[in-house]
Design goal:
Elements: H1 3-14, H2 37-41, H3 49-53, H4 68-74, H5 94-105, H6 115-118, E1 144-145, E2 154-155
Antiparallel strand pairs: 1-2
Helix pairs in contact: 1-5
Length: 156
């Protein structure tokens, strides 16, 4: 299984609200938005000092035991590792937890995204898995790539 399934069924509906792990908010210095979540979690040290000193990473490929995200989703936390996620009264159902577990234990695989899925039409954005795409195209006329403050989108 790939990240895109977990993204669609867990991260995008439970974690990326405006007050949590959106690109604008980045609670805990973590963004779980589509196209960004993989490079934010896989083999990345957590900001939480207790988790970091315990040798955890946000997601350790193949190991829920060493994945801080798994601890946060299942409330297997020490007193100084924070609280259960997601917050705001949302509890992941068993199917969502199983999906997260299977993704982590299966190697935390990422299926690369394309320009259309990322809604990018110029330049070489990251494919969502930590590798630049070959190219999403070029802009014409007076448009420049990244115009209007949006990376990899043509604008005036």
């Amino acid at each position: 299984m790939y990240l895109n399934e977990l993204q669609k069924k867990v991260f995008s509906i439970n974690c990326t609200t405006s007050s949590c792990h959106s690109a604008d908010r980045a609670a805990g210095n973590l963004v779980l938005a589509e196209g960004l979540s993989y490079t934010q979690v896989v083999d990345v040290s957590p900001d939480n000092l207790a988790a970091k000193s315990a040798g955890l990473v946000r997601v350790k490929k193949g190991s829920t035991d060493l994945s801080f995200l798994w601890r946060k989703l299942t409330n297997q936390l020490t007193s100084d590792e924070g609280t259960l996620m997601p917050q705001a009264g949302v509890v992941l159902d068993p199917a969502q937890l199983d999906l997260a577990k299977r993704w982590i234990e299966g190697g935390a695989l990422c299926q690369p995204l394309d320009c259309a899925t990322l809604k990018k039409n110029c330049g070489t954005p990251d494919n969502g898995c930590g590798t630049p795409l070959s190219s999403c195209g070029t802009c014409s006329g007076a448009d420049t790539c990244g115009g209007g403050g949006v990376d990899f989108v043509c604008g005036q």
